[in-house]
Amino acid sequence: MLRSATSRLVALYCLLLLTLGAVFLVFTVSNFRHYTREVIASNLSIRAAGVWSISQNLLNQPVALAAAIQSGFSPEVQNRFIRIRYGDRIIFQSGDPADGRFKPSLIPMDDAANDNARSIGDVLLLSRHYRDPRGRPVVVDIGQSFYFVHTLERELATSIFIALPILLVFAAIGGYVLMRRALSPIETMIKETEAYTFNRADTRLPLVRTEPRIEELGMALNRLLDRLSRAYSHASRFSADAAHELRTPLTIVRGELELLAGRKNLQPEVETAVANALEEITRLSGMVDSLILLSRMESMWGKKSHAPVDLRKLAEDTLVQIGLLAEEKQLRLSGPEGPTVIVAGDPDRLRQVLVNLLDNAIKYTPRDGRITVRVGIEKDRGFISVEDTGIGIASAHLEGIFERFYRVSPDRGEIGAGLGLAIVKSICAAHGGEVTVKSELGQGSIFRVDLPLMPAGEHGALPSF
Ligand code: ADP
């Protein structure tokens, strides 16, 4: 239920606060009770001594005694209880208290009790034992209504009870916000790591100086990115160098084979062998050219070209170019549908993107299928899409098809080298754009290229790749 460390930590410290609050409540209330009891008991003791000092000379004059006590202590008004016992007679007993909280007649006469204060209902009672000059016992019972203390106790407990949940809510919110703030550098790292691509290989995670462990994690990840991008550029350089090295010998071999193929009087089996070799060499040369183009594109990643390219016009021209191929397979080519869209780019490279996508659409769409090209603008970016009703691509392959040499199933007679879409991706990245695909097996595919629009009024320098 509480999956995140933040929620667990907040829950734990709310629980701790709750326990602390409960301990505090019990401790405060019992301390308060003990303290007020002590204070009242000590007051009662002083008052008992006062009562004794007034009454010791009036023990045999009940009326005068009553008057003296009333004038000195006015027990009823003060919600107090005073009783004086002389021998086995009660010579004075105060009346009902003003707050009516106890009945004086119901307060027991407990002769065995020691000098400690004791609670009788809502009354705290203290009995003091004296002797008159003739040695007869005199007991002064003096009591105080304890009701107001109980009320205070209840109110204190209620206030703590109400304040505690409010405090808990504030503590939980405060704790959550603090934790989120403390973890926000990690959120940023996650976002940056998710957005990391080799198109922006020099991007590194931002480092936070506030939390040493998080900073160390950031530095460790940055070192990992350093190693990865070094390995990646090493691999790219290797394939680029290899392609460059292969280009010249391949051109020579191709030239020689073409020469040979042009000869007359070749034996039929030699002629077939030369034709086959020429076909393979041509395919290899194409692959080498693609690899060289890929490495050139990679060096352009992130550096945008600024020539205005009309995507609609580009699509019209390319559809005318490629129309023959589609006709051969009796495919219906339609489009371009959509408005005029001017993006910033290199027209030759963008044409190559469209040619590769259309070439694939034609290759992987069976006879009588349909291919539609659309252009448009969405979220401040221009797009061009190629939709076919072909064989489609299983979702497991959708990520891989943009990798170099990736082919879904080479054994089903696919003749390409698996470089077409890698080139599309690289050209898009070099333009600050991206290529995406939606496809369903047996239903068809939609490849879509999104590119930055040409900023209004900018038709300046035309650097090409
Ligand atoms: P190739 O040049 O060999 O066609 P690509 O990089 O262009 O290589 O494509 C990679 C793989 O993606 C292909 O092998 C193919 O299986 C699949 N693919 C590409 N386009 C389509 C499409 N329109 N319909 C179905 N599969 C496709």
Task: Describe this protein's structure.
The protein has 465 residues and is of the alpha+beta class. It has 3 domains: 148 residues, Beta-Lactamase (2-Layer Sandwich); 87 residues, Signal transduction histidine kinase, dimerisation/phosphotransfer (DHp) domain (Helix Hairpins, Orthogonal Bundle), CATH 1.10.287.130; 145 residues, Heat Shock Protein 90 (2-Layer Sandwich), CATH 3.30.565.10. 52% of the residues lie in helices and 17% in strands. It is built from 8 helices and 12 strands. The radius of gyration is 49 Å and the shape is rod-shaped. The chain starts with a helix and ends in a 13-residue tail after the last strand. The C terminus is likely disordered. The structure holds adenosine-5'-diphosphate.
What structural category arises from helix and sheet content? alpha+beta
Query: What is the CATH fold-level name of the largest domain?
Result: Beta-Lactamase
Element string (H = helix, E = strand): HHEEEEEHHHEHEEHEEHEE
**Multimer state:** single chain
**Low-confidence runs (pLDDT<50, min 5 residues)?**
460-465
Give a brief outline of the structure.
The chain is of the alpha+beta class and 465 residues long. It has 8 helices and 12 strands.
